[in-house]
Amino acid sequence: MERLFYLSTLLLILISCPILASSQLQIPLEIAEENEQLENDINSFFRIMDRLNDELGFYSFIPYTGNVYLRPSLEQRLMEHFAVPIYSVASGKGPLNRRYEKGKNLVIVLFSGFDDPILAVLNDTELSSGSHFYSFLYVPQGNNKRFLTMEEMRKFFSWCFETSIDHVLLLFQSESEFETWTYYYLKNVTVTRVRKGRSLNSMVRNEGYRFSVQVANDLPSIFWYNSTEQADVIGGGNISLSGPIGLMMVEFMRYINATMDILPIGEKQNSNYDIFQADQNVDMVANLVINDSLPFSPVVSDTQICLLVPHRRKIPSSRYFDRVVSPSVHLLMLPVALLVFVIKYIAHRRRSLLDAFFSTLRFHLGIPLPEGQLERLPLADKIIEVYSLLFLMIFISVCGSILSSVLTAGLYYPPITDVESMRASGLRIITEDPTILQAFRDNRMPSSLADLVDLVDDHTVFKNLQNLNDSVVNVVRTPNWRGLRLYQERLKTKRLAIAGPKLCSDIRLLRLPISPRSPMRFIFKDYFDRIFESGLEQKWIRMGFQKFREVYGITKLPTDKNNEWKPLTISFYSIFITLFMAGMLLSTLVFIIELLYKRYRG
């Protein structure tokens, strides 16, 4: 009987175990539906990420999953789906301030509500200072509603704006569809749904926004002048902008159907490019600056400080002979002439010094003696006349040929390409910018040339450039030279040119400062990228230089002179004519003196 009881108990246990096991392994219906909805959200999210990645081309993904757990994990799914690096961040570690790869990175955040601790982790200095795109996926847990109201979204995007999180997409599943929202700042935070065919540019166009732009003259890259030519952009004011940067700003305002208030300042741009906005209400400063800490300001150009040197500097015709014949040859001819003089004086007994002098002069001019006179010469004098005359004739012929060539084609100073040739040229360096002199002292430019730099006024520099003066060396910044070089476009041979890299500073990047509170930060960079690819910048450089000529009264451009290579005038031979006349006069005077001396003596 007891054995039967044990058997019946064991059978009951065996029958009940599968029932208990099945009841414990069964997943509640609510959890299953929640997991299924999460998978659907993730799939919809990945479809949007595919389109974003194709359009923007992200360098890496930075996922923040927080308390949302997936199987497989979000990091694993990203690695299987995209061939880009992944930075994984845990929610409990707080801001990491990790240095991420420079470029467009996609920050992916899964959060369950505004109290999710993962949002605090996003208060990261490195994230806010980089060029990142944010994608927030709202994943509610428990009894939280699956969608966000407009007030909640406005609260969320206000937090993004205060945290300097731009380029944001907020994604969640509403009652009917998967929705995508974003925001932009025009006077206040504006929340808008992302729809096909509707862009931020179209939203700004509809607003008719008015921007404020600060300007300092930096000729000819950017300058302002009194005119109503751009009344449709400046809102009826009497100040217009020109130069490539100024024209770009004007066309940008037309592109977004906006207007701007131009705020000119009295400061002048210098080689340090350190003009910054002082008023926080200014949307943009239309001057280039060197500042890599401006996150929303695109790199629009690069700059170098370079010496503007004479390209082909002619040597005056009066200096041709001493430039053609080396000074060492002059030094060599002096002892040779002295040796010939001594031989001719000693070899002829009872000969005056004057006779030896004229004989030496005739010898060096290459004038041969008649045969009868040659036979009567002493042996030492005869050897000099015979064997040295051949060398003298060749030397005189070579000098004559070289002199004829340079008189025909001209003679030029050696080009200035480095510090040694700059110092050998004997030219001074002029500039109106005190920071240029400091650049030489700080060795950003060759410090060994600092003693050659002279500070002058703006008018002197302008006149030297306008006259293409090749007796001084100017200092230019390459962005300005792109416009100024058009001044020489009608010359076949440019008279001024930028020296080689040894006389230039290092290349530095230039940005246009945009206020982090201005809506320009969302749309200007894309606009500039299109401008750069289209080549409009070259057109604006030419248009800006044309306006620069009109404003500053440059009516004509320099041209090549038709009579630049004119024949030698009689004045070139004036020194030889003077010597000839002096010799004739001296000869006549000596003849008269000898005649009178013999008459009265007799």
TrEMBL record:
| Alphabetical UniProt keywords | Cell membrane, Glycoprotein, Membrane, Receptor, Signal, Transmembrane, Transmembrane helix
Q: Name one GO cellular component term.
A: plasma membrane
Membrane topology type: Multi-pass membrane protein
Superkingdom is Eukaryota
Organism equals Drosophila kikkawai (Fruit fly)
**What are the TM regions of this chain, as residue ranges?**
329-347, 386-413, 570-597
Q: Which residues form the signal peptide?
A: 1-23
Q: Which InterPro entries match?
A: Insect_Ionotropic_Sensory_Rcpt (IPR052192)
Protein name, entry field: Uncharacterized protein
Q: Tell me the compartments it is located in.
A: Cell membrane
Q: What is its main location?
A: membrane
Q: What would be the name of the gene that encodes this protein?
A: LOC108077940
